[in-house]
Design brief:
By secondary structure, this protein is α/β, with parallel strands linked by helices. The chain is 37% helix and 16% strand. The radius of gyration is 22 Å and the shape is globular. Bound molecules: pyridoxal-5'-phosphate. The site of pyridoxal-5'-phosphate has 15 residues, from α6.
Length: 427
C-alpha cells in the first residue's frame, strides 16, 4: 500500500492513540495557545477531514487559507514523496545553490506582477521564509531600510502606517502593533515605529503621514479582523498617497492571496500594484511551511546583502518542491476562477438563508472568502453546532462565522454547507 492509499483510508492516521488519550496528551503537553474544538482529525483529503470513528467534516476553515488546493493534493504529495525518496528533500546550507529553490523562485517571481514598477521593470525577487509572520517582518525590514537609505530618515525613526483590526501574525514586532489587547498584553517591551489608523479611512492615512513615514502595511481584505473587504477605492487611494509621499506600499496577502478571493491576488480587484507583497499559507499547498516576501528586484537588492537576512530552513528543498507543485495546481486547476465561481454561488445561498434568519447581521466576502456576522457577537456557538453536523468552521474576531473552504469545492459541497447553515441559522 502506498502512502497515498494509506491516508485515503478514512479514520486511519498517524497512530492508534484513542481520541481520549489525544485530548489528554495535548492538554498536558501542548501549550494552550489555541482554543480548540472537540475533534481529532486523523487524516484529510480534498475538502474533507476524517475522524477515527469514520465521521467526516467539511473543512470550512482550510487552515486559514493554507489548504486552498485541498488537503493532500495528489500532485503536491507526489512531488514531496519523489523528493523524499530521491534524496533531494533535505535541508541544504544556504551557502550553496539548489535547483528546487531556483525553479520555485523563478515561478513565483514571474507569477507575481511587476512589483513597484516605478523602481524599475526588471522583474521581482523573492525572499523565502518558514511562515507568514517571518515574511511580514522581512517586509517591515525592507520598508524601514528604504526609508533610511533612500528617504534619509534617521535609522530608528522610521514609521510604518498599519491599520485597525489588523492581523499579521504573533511574533513580538508584529503583535506590537496589533489592535487586539490579548495579542500583546504582558509581552512587552513592544517594538516602536508603527502608527495605527482606521482601516478604510484614507483621510486618516493622509493625516498620519510624517517626514519619518517609510511605508504602509495593509491587508487588502482582512481575514482575522472579521472578514472585511475595504471600501472601494481604498487600495487605489493608498497607492496614490504612497506615490505622492514616496512610501513603500506592502500588501499582506498571506490569507487572501493565491486565489482565495476569486483573483490570483486580492489587489487585482482594484487593479492596484503594490511595491511588495507577502505570501504564505497556500504557497506550499498546506504540506510544508513556506512563506515569501516578493518585491521589485532593485528594492530587494538594495536592502538585502549577505548577512542582512537569513533563515536555515527558509526555502529549503522540501518546501520549494511543495511550493513549485502548489503554484502549478493553482494555475492549472484555475483555482482563482473556481473560487470566484463557487464563491458567488455559495454567497448567494448564504444570503438567501440570511434573509430568513434572525441571527445574521451581515454576509460579506469575495470568492470563497465569506463571513457571516451574527447579531449575538458569538459566532463560536454556531460553529460548535456546525461541528456536530459535520462542518468545521471557526469564528473571525468573535462576531463572524468564517466560511472559507478549500478552493477545490464542488457543487455538492455547496449543498452540504448550505443545508447545514440553514439548520443552524434559521430558527
Ligand atoms: C493576513 C495574515 N498575515 C500574517 C499571518 C501570519 O501567518 P503565520 O501564522 O503563518 O505566521 C496570518 C495568519 O493567519 C494572516 O492571516
Amino acid at each position: 500500500m502506498t502512502n497515498i492509499d494509506t491516508i485515503k483510508k478514512a479514520g486511519h492516521g498517524f497512530s492508534t492513540l484513542a481520541d481520549s488519550q489525544i485530548y489528554d496528551y495535548e492538554t498536558n503537553f501542548v501549550a494552550s495557545h489555541y482554543g480548540r474544538q472537540k475533534l481529532v482529525v486523523r487524516n484529510a483529503e480534498g475538502v474533507w477531514l476524517h475522524s477515527q470513528d469514520g465521521n467526516k467534516y467539511l473543512d470550512c476553515l482550510a487552515a486559514y487559507s493554507a489548504a486552498n488546493q485541498g488537503h493532500c493534493h495528489p500532485k503536491i504529495v507526489k512531488a514531496l514523496v519523489d523528493a523524499l525518496q530521491n534524496n533531494y528533500a533535505s535541508v541544504i546550507s544556504n551557502v550553496v545553490y539548489t535547483d528546487s529553490m531556483a525553479a520555485f523562485a523563478k515561478k513565483l517571481a514571474e507569477l507575481v506582477p511587476q512589483m513597484g514598477p516605478r523602481f524599475g521593470q526588471n522583474g521581482n525577487k523573492i525572499l523565502p521564509k518558514n511562515g507568514g509572520v517571518e515574511s511580514v517582518e522581512t517586509a517591515i525590514k525592507m520598508m524601514r531600510y528604504y526609508g533610511w537609505k533612500t528617504k534619509g530618515i534617521a535609522d530608528g525613526k522610521q514609521e510604518i502606517i498599519v491599520f485597525s483590526n489588523n492581523f499579521h501574525g504573533r511574533m513580538i514586532t508584529v503583535v506590537s502593533f496589533a489592535d487586539t489587547p490579548r495579542y500583546k498584553e504582558g509581552f512587552g517591551p513592544l517594538t516602536p515605529g508603527f502608527v495605527t489608523v482606521d482601516y478604510g479611512n484614507l483621510d486618516a492615512v493622509e493625516k498620519a503621514i510624517t517626514p519619518n513615514t517609510c511605508g504602509i502595511l495593509v491587508e487588502p481584505a482582512q481575514g482575522e479582523g472579521g472578514m472585511f473587504i475595504p471600501p472601494e477605492g481604498f487600495l487605489k487611494g493608498l497607492r496614490e498617497l504612497s506615490d505622492k509621499n514616496d512610501l513603500m506600499l506592502v500588501f499582506d496577502e498571506i490569507q487572501v492571496g493565491l486565489g482565495r478571493t476569486g483573483k490570483m491576488f486580492c489587489f487585482e480587484h482594484e487593479n492596484v500594484i503594490p511595491d511588495g507583497i507577502v505570501l504564505g499559507k497556500a504557497l506550499s499547498g498546506g504540506l510544508a511551511p513556506l512563506s515569501c516576501f516578493v518585491t521589485n528586484k532593485e528594492l530587494m537588492d538594495m536592502a538585502f546583502q549577505p548577512g542582512s537576512d537569513g533563515s536555515t530552513f527558509g526555502g529549503f528543498p522540501l518546501a520549494c518542491v511543495a511550493g513549485n507543485a502548489a503554484l502549478d495546481v493553482i494555475v492549472e486547476e484555475k483555482l482563482a476562477e473556481r473560487s470566484a465561481e463557487m464563491g458567488a454561488i455559495l454567497k448567494k445561498r448564504i444570503e438567501e438563508i440570511a434573509a430568513k434568519s434572525s441571527h445574521v447581521k451581515e454576509v460579506r466576502g469575495r470568492g470563497l472568502f465569506i463571513g457571516i456576522e451574527v447579531h449575538s457577537g458569538d459566532a463560536m456557538s454556531f460553529c460548535r453546532t456546525l461541528l456536530g453536523m459535520g462542518i468545521l468552521a471557526n469564528d473571525s474576531h468573535g462576531h463572524t462565522i468564517r466560511v472559507s473552504p478549500p478552493l477545490v469545492l464542488e457543487n455538492e459541497h455547496i449543498d452540504y454547507i448550505a443545508e447545514r447553515l440553514e439548520k443552524v441559522l434559521v430558527d
